[in-house]
Amino acid sequence: MYVVESKGGAIVCMLLALLFLGTWPAVMTLLERRGRLPQHTYLDYSITNLLAAVIIALTFGELGSGTPNFFTQISHLSDNWTSVMFAMAGGIVLSLGNLSTQYAWAFVGLSVTEVITSSITVVIGTTLNYFLDDKINNAKILFPGVACFLIAVCLGSAVHSSNAADNRAKLATKFGDGTVTKDVEGGNTASEVKFGTADFLVQLEKRRAIKVFGKSTLIGLGITFFAGLCFSLFSPAFNLATNDQWHTLKKGVPKLVVYTAFFWFSVSCFILAIILNLTFLYRPVLNLPRSSIKAYLNDWNGRGWALLAGFLCGFGNGLQFMGGQAAGYAAADAVQALPLVSTFWGMLLFGEYRRSSRTTYGFLFSMLFMFIVAVAVLMASSGHRK
């Protein structure tokens, strides 16, 4: 198998993971804003997300002469089943987190959702990984970086609250009471309205799959914090699967290599996603329209983008774990700076924060600055696993 051993190689893996993991949420959000049901999108995404893990296992997991390789460990499942359970537990909480964020993006926006979930992930997950990794990361550098992420959570919540107030003011100016009870009469088409205007907000609401007008913003924030708690557990679970810090393996049984662990991690992620989304087809949440397997199979509108999102997320997670195995999973949590990428896509593709108040812009740039500082500090804490 191929093993990343140097700190430089680990950082390259982290940077590529950061790009991939920051881009796939933008693709998913784009499809929801075009009206595609999130159940359809997530089913497509789940297929290629698992396929990415299989590709990584069959390539990196089989390259070179190192042992044990992927196929060797797959054939000895009875020996390392406890580590497999840790890996699959990580996949389950990641699947729950990803599924939750798909709905949170509609309520609180791509940027704020990613900032809050990523910051919670770092504050909890990085702390757990630091102790699981036998403190190979420099604590004097690591924990100030964690504190920066915690500050970013607060700033992210402030951005959302300020931006929501801006949107209410725009709608109040146009409709009088701030609520939209009818379509814009004689209004512009979706392609003609300008980002950030009241007309834009109305046209977006008419097109999108998840309707958010009239719903409490606390719903979105609640979903977001739940997703963050789920994300904070998947990396420590994967760490336990590959390094066996709790000594659950019998003496002489090799630890799971990162590629084998990632395969089982992705299998459980796939199984849960399929079960939940097939259920949501017939019993949708948040007042989404009811669908069916037949309707899903016939829905080719945006399927290619959904499949691409699955590949990006799958390869991003794989690269994060490859880097974490070399430099410590606590340092690898630097990829949780993905909101820097997601915010770029949110502003470029979706016009987030266009025509917002100076207060919102102040919170936004403070949040992004704190994230940049946090990422730099967290990567600087990288250690080297013996």
Automatic annotation (TrEMBL):
One of its GO terms (cellular component) is membrane. Keywords: ATP-binding, Membrane, Nucleotide-binding, Transmembrane, Transmembrane helix, Transport. InterPro entries: UPS_plant, Ureide_permease. PANTHER family: UREIDE PERMEASE 1-RELATED-RELATED, UREIDE PERMEASE 5. It comes from Turnera subulata. It is a multi-pass membrane protein. The chain crosses the membrane at residues 6-30, 42-61, 81-99, 106-129, 141-160, 216-238, 258-282, 303-323, 329-350, 362-381. One of its GO terms (molecular function) is allantoin:proton symporter activity. This is Uroporphyrinogen-III synthase. It comes from the Eukaryota. Belongs to the plant ureide permease (TC 2.A.7.19) family. It is found in: Membrane.
